[in-house]
Write the structure tokens for this entry.
Amino acid sequence: MADFLSNDQLVTLAKEYGTPLYVYNADQIRGQYNKLEKAFSKCNARFFYACKALSNINVLKYVQSIGASLDCVSINEVKLGLKAGFTPDRILFTPNCVDFAEVDEGKQLGVNLNIDNISILEQFGNKYGGSYPICIRFNPHIMGGGNYKISTGHIDSKFGISIHQLRHIERVVKKTGLHVAGIHMHTGSDIKDVNVFLQGLEVMFDLARHFPDISFIDLGSGFKVPYQDGDVQTDIELLGKKVTQAFQQYEKETGKSIQVWFEPGKFLVSESGYFIVKANVIKQTTATVFVGVNSGFNHLIRPMFYEAYHRIKNISHPDGPERIYTVVGNICETDTFAWDRTLNEVRESDLLVFYNAGAYGFEMSSNFNSRLKPAEVLLIEGKAHLIRKRDEFQDLLRNQLEVL
């Protein structure tokens, strides 16, 4: 796999800003967005960046500048999007298990609303009727995604309204006069097979016939990106070709031209991210040689949470002899980044980099063990910009009130 940033570039950044350190390369984000636009160039498509993957305000501003829209799952993400310069019509709000007041606030802000609960649908219809367009999120009962924890379209998922509840939805729409402008589905993340999307699209086309006023179908996302050599990834070019053909056929059969929406998150930012750590200790036990680094799952939880693989490289000693290590963090829990990983010989104080760290890395970080969150740096046309300061001790006490 090609490394866009060289060892020397990463070492220089680590020396300047310290470690642990998240680095994002804007050129790679733009490259991924260009791939989408090219693949769907013959289709009326819109792309909403799923900002839950990485929501630093500077990343949002950059994504806005290259033409993407924004997918949000909380009202605060919506507000961040507005602050970053997205106009309300370029924001899609898809909350889950929230109070009606949060949906109502999204309406007041003028963004696109995607509702995945019949109760909320009824409340919204009773209050606003057809005065404000909405999208309905359906659960297509399709198992998709690389891990059960990130599969969202199966029958036991909390997401979306079951397609088998269509008749009741139709009753609600008729009774309240709701204006259904779009329908939505999302089956999960890390989808390798484009046929999962096409299978879902067949379901959506069938549903579309029940909502004559829709102007778009949203297929969510879940595009798979490679994490290691030999990884199968979503064939975006093939998907673009197949989806274009399907929408052209739908228009031929129905006479209706509608948009297709996608919500790429990881696809846009994962490969742009590099997480740099320092080897604190080399610890050899009777069975294992550990590299203990100055980070843990408080900074990068994906390996422990999703059993996710991240390629790791010793950027201080890239020509050293290869040895087998287990890479662990400094958290007081089982905190393993990688078992039995072949790395160039690691010495104490060497710098290691985790690749594909742009999505759900810093975004899911915490101050567990009262450890400080790392800094973030964004490279734009090769120039480094500090976009988040490293935590200081006082940040741990910032919202605490001492009463004793």
